[in-house]
Write a structure and sequence with these properties.
Chain lengths: 183, 418, 268
């Protein structure tokens, strides 16, 4: 099977070009099969939820479902706000804000955990192993997780127990004084 | 032709694998060096195309199964959710539904090629028989799959075909109830059809393995129908047939893409976009196009049991083909009489398909299609059971070339281009 | 020669000698669909955004009284390839609908008068149906069931042309000898010529906000465009992708053909 040098390079180029093009096509064709496992339009339509705050009186909490998780929406009393602000960040087991609306490095001071001091919005999933903590229980006036005894304060920060991190603050914004959009 | 392996592992890694599991050797012997007749034409590319189709159906099917819900109350909506909400769901669904049609288009071309070139004749009888088995499994898989979207045609097609079993004397209605899992097609039926639809393609894949294995014993037939006589008659599968198959596969995919992107519902029936309703029968119940010839045969016989027997007989006939043809010449290229009957047979199959697509009392130019279907069915059986045995005995074949190499390369066959 | 053809021809001609079927009663097969142009047909077709929005208005104000749109969610209204509402507009449309509310804190879903408690719609909701179930739909429509419209264009032969022909096929005079069934309407584009639906459209049945004259033809054109989108919201993406895919495949075949000829050049 002799071939002139010219033919040899031309055949190699053709092989390489065809093979490369087929490979590019195969990768492009593979993308829909990968992407179909990502959340569908129906799931994405539920990726944000609007919450009406007006029925929640001071000292009360409601739980709303968001992206499959419970969301704590707590209307704090002035006493709860005061006790949250009086804690030194340096004494906290987890000193980061864990707030999706702030940079990762933000400290866990109460100011970095809320937008309006009377409204505390948290993802109600214990950062230990994922149980839902119970509100208005525990030594710190916040939450107590009955699974393994983690206790959170009135800013949702971990104070005692095995949970490694503060309760996370989801991305949210105030649409009006009485309405927030989470996610 | 299978012979001793010529595989020589080059790297240490290849040698290590080869000593423990001769898979690279198998790949090398079957895809790389396998001696293949040098005169294979376009009609011989459809085996590779079919393998591609099977792969596409399995991959798209598994992905669809991630989103589909096999419950009579939810199935239809889950398919619409795939079409509207799942990322690229519409694309994957249309590839799967049109892929089934492309799969059958390719299998019919593949079967007709085998018929024309005598690929079913000794020593390749078992390849043909395994192939008919694959065809049967494909029809079962397609039937189960068509029920899954739970549209009107899904439901009523399932009702008609499963009711055929009740034609069997004494045990028929019990078999039908057993198939349904209920007193009629319903949720129980849908669930088991989904399970079987998921299972059968993997059985098909295994049987395809046997099909290719059986082929690799004698090696490929070729358009001349004469045996390979020397190495000059063959070329290594790679690169000659890998590149040829790749090219023709690409053309096939162009046709496939044309349907998927520009006419995705061409092969379908609008009634299947209406949710199944057990209380409302559509005016015309029609299966997918690839089952129409058999549907026409079934409806052409006025007696229910006989209709089932004739339809089943048409498929069973295919198993006997290697022994029905008495000709000692394989390829219709050299069989001037059989060639004509072959083409009439091909046209008759298309006519049967057309008859199956129309309503039972339809007529064309005053001719009732029912009678056309009866004549066509008669020809189908006459072709296999009467023409094939007789023509092989009375026909004078044309002169057959001495060898493939001589036919392809001319009289300079002795000194192949080097 | 041509023995096979002669044999088959003889058999075929024998079949033709059979007597033709007797004439039946008046043939009420539906008329062939009307010829009309839609912007979304053909390989490069797209949906006319303005027509989609006008069509949505026609659906909302005329059809939605009886016909559900089960598979369309409010968030589809602001998606690419659709009517082109903004997210805020789609949200506002959603909020205008009442959806069944979840149980309240007391676990109730009905109010004191027995009416179902409701909440405003959100983007994630699907369009609510005008009737709670098939029986209620039939009771309100003289025993007939108005079909869901979210797939109607794909669910009928000749698709958009069929739907267009039906809704503009009223007010015609039945031929002599044909009696319209009591309670139904004459529409020759419907199989059997008796349709349960009263003529849905009239001139100026809606007032278009963009000032377009609302003739029956215009309303039909717009609502069919909207319903075509409802049946096939991914059409534009599909045709766009198809163009790219086919170009790619044609180029790839060209390369593969050249490679094939090169490999086989020395085999002859």
């Amino acid at each position: 099977m002799t071939a002139t040098t010219m033919d040899g390079t031309r055949r190699d180029f053709l092989y390489v070009a065809s093979g490369a093009m087929a490979a590019v096509g195969a990768v492009a064709a593979a993308w829909p099969f990968v992407d179909q496992m990502n959340p569908s339009a129906a799931a994405l339509a539920l990726s944000s939820v609007e919450v009406d705050l007006s029925p929640v009186a001071a000292g009360q909490q409601i739980v709303v479902k968001w992206r499959g998780h419970p969301l704590f929406v707590r209307h704090r009393t002035p006493a709860e706000i005061k006790s949250a602000k009086s804690v030194l960040v340096s004494e906290l087991p987890d000193q980061f804000a864990r707030n999706a609306n702030k940079p990762d490095s933000a400290p866990a001071s109460d100011d970095d955990r809320v937008m309006k001091p009377e409204w505390l919005i948290l993802i109600g999933v214990c950062t230990h192993l994922g149980c839902t903590p119970t509100g208005f229980e525990g030594d710190y006036g916040g939450w107590l997780c009955h699974c393994h005894g983690s206790q959170y304060d009135t800013s949702g920060r971990i104070r005692k127990g095995p949970a490694p991190q503060n309760l996370a603050v989801p991305p949210y914004a105030f649409l009006s004084d009485t309405r927030i959009k989470v996610g | 032709m299978s012979g001793p392996s010529t595989y020589n592992p080059k790297s240490g890694f290849e040698k290590w694998i080869d000593q423990r599991l001769p898979l690279p050797r198998l790949m090398h012997d079957t895809i790389q060096t396998f001696p293949t007749p040098r005169n294979l034409n376009i009609w011989y590319t459809f085996g590779g195309i079919l393998t591609f189709c099977l792969g596409v159906q399995i991959v798209t099917g598994i992905v669809l199964a991630m989103h589909y819900v096999a419950n009579a109350g939810l199935a239809f909506d889950s398919v619409e959710s795939i079409m509207r909400d799942v990322n690229y769901g519409w694309l994957i669904r249309y590839i799967h539904s049109n892929g089934a049609s492309m799969f059958f288009l390719a299998v019919y071309i593949h079967m007709f090629r085998g018929l024309y070139y005598g690929s079913y004749k000794a020593p390749r009888e078992l390849i043909w028989i395994i192939g008919v088995l694959i065809y049967l499994l494909m029809m079962a898989t397609a039937f189960f799959g068509y029920v899954l979207p739970w549209g009107q045609m899904s439901f009523w097609g399932a009702t008609v075909i499963t009711n055929l079993f009740s034609a069997i004397p004494w045990v028929g209605s019990h078999i039908a109830t057993w198939l349904w899992g209920d007193f009629a097609v319903g949720d129980a039926t849908l669930n088991r059809f989904f399970s079987l639809h998921y299972l059968l393609p993997f059985i098909i894949a295994g049987v395809v393995g046997l099909h290719i294995w059986a082929l690799h014993v004698p090696g490929n037939n070729n358009p001349l129908g004469i045996d390979v006589k020397s190495p000059q008659d063959t070329v290594p599968f790679h690169p000659y047939y890998t590149v040829k198959d790749a090219f023709y596969l690409c053309l096939f995919v162009i046709l496939f893409a044309g349907f998927v992107f520009y006419a995705p519902n061409f092969f379908g029936n609008p009634d299947n976009y209406v949710q199944a309703n057990p209380l409302v029968t559509p005016p015309d119940i029609v299966p997918e196009w690839y089952l129409l010839p058999f549907y026409a045969m079934l409806r052409s016989i006025p007696n229910k049991l006989m209709g089932v027997i004739v339809m089943g007989g048409a498929i069973v006939t295919l198993f006997f083909l290697p022994w029905l043809d008495t000709s000692r010449v394989r390829s219709c290229r050299f069989r001037p009489l059989m060639k004509q009957f072959f083409w009439v047979f091909a046209v008759v199959c298309v006519i049967l398909g057309y008859c199956g697509s129309q309503s039972v009392d339809a007529a064309v130019a005053g001719v009732p299609l029912l009678w056309v279907a009866r004549l066509a069915t008669a020809y189908y059986f006459i072709f296999f059971w009467i023409l094939l045995p007789i023509v092989g005995l009375i026909e004078t074949p044309r002169k057959i070339p001495a060898s493939i190499a001589q036919s392809v390369l001319g009289d300079t066959a002795a000194a192949p281009a080097e | 020669m041509r023995l096979a053809l002669r044999f088959t021809l003889a058999a075929g001609l024998t079949a033709l000698a059979l007597p033709a079927l007797a004439q039946t009663a008046m043939d009420t097969t539906r008329k062939p669909v009307k010829s009309v142009d839609f912007s979304f047909e053909g390989p490069f077709g797209t949906y006319d955004r303005a027509a989609l929005q006008r069509g949505f208005q026609v659906y909302k104000e005329v059809c939605a009284a009886c016909h559900s749109l089960d598979h369309i969610a409010f968030h589809n209204l602001d998606e690419a390839g659709g009517p082109g509402f903004t997210e805020a507009q789609a949200k506002a449309i959603a909020a205008g609908y009442k959806l069944p509310a979840d149980p309240n804190d007391k676990g109730e879903i009905f109010d004191d008068k027995g009416a179902r408690l409701t909440r405003p719609g959100i983007l994630a909701d699907k369009f609510p149906a005008p009737f709670p179930n098939e029986e209620a739909a039939r009771a309100n429509n003289s025993g007939s069931l108005p079909p869901d419209l979210s797939m109607i264009v794909k669910a009928r032969p000749d698709e958009a042309h069929y739907v267009y022909s039906i809704i503009t096929g009223f007010h015609m005079t039945p031929p002599k000898g044909f009696t319209v069934t009591a309670g139904k309407y004459y529409n020759p584009y419907f199989e059997g010529w008796n349709i349960s639906m009263p003529p849905p459209l009239a001139d100026n049945a809606v007032t278009y906000s963009d000032g377009t004259k609302a003739t029956i033809d215009q309303e039909a054109h717009d609502v069919v465009t909207f319903l075509a989108w409802a049946s096939d919201p991914k059409m534009e993406e599909r045709k766009r992708m198809g163009f790219g895919v086919l170009i790619f495949l044609v180029v790839l075949s060209g390369l593969l053909y050249a490679a094939y000829r090169k490999v086989w050049a020395d085999a002859h």
